Amino acid sequence: MNYKLLGKSGLRVSELALGTMTFGEEWGWGSSKEESKKVFDAFANACGNFIDTANRYTEGTSEKFVGEFINSDRDHFVVATKYTLYTRKDDPNFSGNHRKNMMHSLDASLKRLKTDHIDLYWVHAWDFTTPEEEVLRALDDMIRAGKILYIGISDTPAWIVSRMNTIAELRGWTQFVALQIKYSLLERTVERELLPMARKLDLAVTPWAVIGGGILTGKYNKNKDEQGRAQLHKSINKNNLDIAEEVIKVAGEVGCSPVQVAINWVRQQP
């Protein structure tokens, strides 16, 4: 396992992170606790130390599982979680980027993870409502309180991210060190603005959906029924299946799996 600095911070993280959105079965799919532990152990035994979860993943079960799995060696692992998305559908203050939602979301995550601090705290998505200064100052306050060590931002337009880091720099507040974005052979629009911005600002990029929701494994190419495939996955269309077909060909030429081709293509981008 290789390790990299997380953006312009001094934090060392494994080159591969373990995403744990599938830890738990509350959403009708995912892994049992026993299966999740097997996945976690395989990652840890391969010297992975970077774990990514969120307060919304499987209604909080993902964080609970992660908290139990890391408990015996908490400080070895770099634990990332997120806030923004709703945790109560009928309460307007239980979603969004504002300070109130941040504080109760963070405290709830700390309890589920059974820890006193989060190594990397993500703004999960931008709400286009909360002022940038409110979010930055609240995050900085949480860092000064010792509840967070580093901050990142996910699925947010490049102009907002760059504006927020500029504000933080000018006011002496903590800046984002990482950017989480959807990026794969199927989804490359981030190459226009988000990736150039990340390089300029020295933000670590942690891509999600790198195998296109399973499309780049090639499993949907085996089903020739177009209507049946479309019902399985909204992203299944001729263009994406053609890309998957090329990935399958490359995998055959180099002697590996389509999944390895898809993941390593993303890893090799600057």
Q: Care to give the gist of this entry?
A:
Helix content is about 40%, strand content about 15%. The chain has about 270 residues and is α/β, with parallel strands linked by helices.
CATH class of the largest domain: Alpha Beta
Number of separate domains: 2
Order of helices and strands: EEEHEHEHEHEHEHEHHH
Report helical residue fraction: 25-40%
Percent of residues in beta strands = 15-25%
- Rg measurement, Å: 19 Å
CATH fold call of the largest domain = TIM Barrel
What is the strand tally?
A: 9
Oligomer class: single chain
- Uncertain regions spanning at least 5 consecutive residues: none
N-C termini distance: 19 Å
In the sheet with the most strands, the strands line up as 3-4-5-6-7-8-9
The CATH fourth-level homologous superfamily of the largest domain:
NADP-dependent oxidoreductase domain
Provide the structure class: alpha/beta
Shape: globular
Helical segment tally? 9
Q: Based on the coordinates given, report the CATH architecture of the largest domain.
A: Alpha-Beta Barrel
Q: What is the average of the pLDDT values?
A: 95
> How would a crystallographer describe the biggest sheet?
7 strands, parallel
Strand and helix map with partners:
Elements: E1 3-5, E2 12-14, E3 17-19, H1 33-45, E4 50-52, H2 61-70, E5 78-83, H3 99-113, E6 118-123, H4 132-144, E7 148-154, H5 158-171, E8 178-182, H6 194-201, E9 204-208, H7 226-232, H8 238-254, H9 258-267
Parallel strand pairs: 3-4, 4-5, 5-6, 6-7, 7-8, 8-9
Antiparallel strand pairs: 1-2
